Amino acid sequence: MIVLDTHAWLRWRAHPGKLSAAAARAIDRAERIGVPTICCWEVAMLSARGRIELDRDVRAWIAQALAGDRVGPVPLDHRIAADAALMDGAGAPPDPADRIILASARRAGGRLVTRDNRLLAFDPDRTLW
């Protein structure tokens, strides 16, 4: 499984040419593509704050961006929440949403597609860009 962080999900659905070659290849080859549910919240917040412009209502965009044979949400559960809260060590991501995204990828057993340098440095074996 490949898990997408928020910006990778947005790029994959709206501007696939802006993905790195490695990210595009990993997504193309993945049997399953997971999107942490916190990414839905981030997309809605970015839209509500005018930081991104979508071509349709944000709820419709999210529903359609999660549709497909290989794509599905990675639900936030108590284990992911605890893993995110207990994530520590040098370079642990300070942003709670980033922690939840990484913990979601770990629990799902997938690699996280992200261009976030903090996440890439913190868990290079679990992340790629």
What does this structure look like?
The two termini are 15 Å apart. This protein has one domain: Rossmann fold (3-Layer(aba) Sandwich), CATH 3.40.50.1010. The protein has a five-stranded parallel β-sheet, sandwiched between helices. It is α/β, with parallel strands linked by helices and 129 residues long. It contains seven helices and five strands; from the N terminus they run E-H-H-E-H-H-E-H-H-E-H-E.
Name some characteristics of this structure.
129 residues; alpha/beta; Rossmann fold; five-stranded parallel sheet; 5 strands
Shape: globular
Strand element count: 5
Order of helices and strands: EHHEHHEHHEHE
Work out the helix count.
Answer: 7
Please give the order of strands in the largest beta sheet.
3-2-1-4-5
In terms of DSSP E residues, the strand content is 5-15%
Average pLDDT taken over every residue: 96
- The chain-level structural class is alpha/beta
Compute the separation of the termini in Å: 15 Å
Radius of gyration: 14 Å
For the record, the count of structural domains works out to: 1
Any guess at the CATH architecture? 3-Layer(aba) Sandwich
Describe how the helices and strands are arranged.
Elements: E1 2-4, H1 6-14, H2 21-29, E2 33-36, H3 37-48, H4 58-65, E3 71-74, H5 78-86, H6 96-108, E4 111-113, H7 117-122, E5 127-128
Parallel strand pairs: 1-2, 1-4, 2-3, 4-5
Helix pairs in contact: 5-6
